[in-house]
Amino acid sequence: MTKHRVSQINRRGMLGLLLGGAAQVGLVQSALAEGLVASPLPKPRPADLYRKSIPTAEALIEASKLSGQVSFAVADTATGEVYETHAPLLRLPPASVAKTVTSLYALEHLGAEYRFITRVLRSGPVVNGVVQGDLILVGGGDPTLDTDGLATLAGKLVAQGITGVSGRLLIDDTALPRIAQIDTEQTEYAGYNPTVSGLNLNYNRVHFEWKRQGEGYSLKMDARAERFAPDVQVARVKVAARNLPVFDHVAGQGRDEWTVAQSALGNGGARWLPVRLPGLYAAEVFQAVARAQGLRLPQGQRKSGAGEEVARIESAPLSVIVRDMLKYSTNLTAEVLGLTASRARGVAAGSLSASAAAMSDWARQRFGMRHIALVDHSGLGGASEVTAVDMVHMLGAAGVEATLAPLMKPVLLRDGQGNVVKNHPVSVHAKTGTLDFVSGLAGYVDAPGGQRMAFATFAADLPKRRAAKAAGVAERPQGARTFNTRAKKLQQALIERWAGVYG
Predict the structure, then answer these.
(1) Phi-psi domain of 311 (left: phi exceeds 0; alpha: psi -120 through 50; beta: other)
(2) Mean pLDDT per 10-residue interval, the chain, length 503 residues
(3) CA angle at residue 314 from 309 to 315, to 5 degrees?
(4) Closest to 402 in 3D by CA, of 173, 160, 104, 167
């Protein structure tokens, strides 16, 4: 026994005498005798024992009570070693996880500094403030163009002293093919399923607002942004005395005609509706924001034209657009990026499916993704297929982590009550994907200690999804929310398992 140990016990014994006499001395003697034959310090718990206490992936999947199928793969980004898989070659819809492929496709073929340009041309000279000829608004496909952007463009014309046009206002939206809807299986009035065109304004959506007014309703449709919110006539809505469908659409002569079920309106509300005539929508809004600044323009016509450029605005760099697309999961942005990248490659893609097929071919050649088959660039189409192991191969490929990980949004981990856990030791940057009865997540996990892993996990109940589509169920089929909630809880449980076992 060391001198320090003896003196420590002597001090304890003296304290015992002072506090309680002989009884305390007995306790000290007992402790001393015990200290001679056993260490008072507990042995450290072996790391292997801790890892063995973590539930297996199969146990987590069973506990999730998810119907349908589950697939995942996880690998070390530094070595490429695949740590763990479950049905890794099962082909399932990626939903918006497909946007990770689109991001790399666009960045590689367009470049991180690429900018979309929206221009105004004039076909004749300006005399006394009036263009002697036509004014042509030429779209470059910019998916982020909004009403304020068109107002800035009009302001540049006014700054040059232009106050009118003797000819026509032409709208050139031919930079990209016009695609009526991203996915025909989605509800027609879903704002996330707009028309795609070479001239896209406000994500090709119009803002619909209603308020109860006596026995009826006041209805308003506008093209709102931060500074400007002009009313529009190219899209109109009327109240119909019915229960279903909630919205119905008829393409009128030069305008979108909507009806809404009165039983769904309540006391008031607002939502975005898709625009099916994006060229005419942009023309009307451009006319309105120009008029507000003193420039009078005639009604717009969809027709390409030639002339001298007099004004332009540019989008943010592509890297910023990609970051925002991954954060907000904007479907229009993904489709525009994919179509524009295919065009840059010289691919004659007149449809989303043709462009997506070209992107899938590129992914096979570029990353060895043998089982990828996408029908669009956003993941909105449920017919797209990918495997978890292919996604992990892509995420772990040379240069991809450095490109993609900084653009991905953080995925916050939650406790059993659904509250965000602050300062969680596990960090996740990934892309989510959600459709009815489909849930995916793919990206990067940083375990405690700094080890990074690439992962992909997909869950889908395709029979239930097909049944819901066949039944014509509207925006939220029964059981879909429960499925997706369980899938997200399973995703977090798997991530915490991987961080604990392999971190």
Answers:
(1) beta
(2) 36 32 36 39 56 91 97 96 97 98 98 98 97 98 98 98 98 96 91 96 97 94 97 95 89 86 94 96 98 97 96 98 98 98 92 97 97 98 97 97 97 91 95 97 94 97 93 78 97 96 90
(3) 155
(4) 104
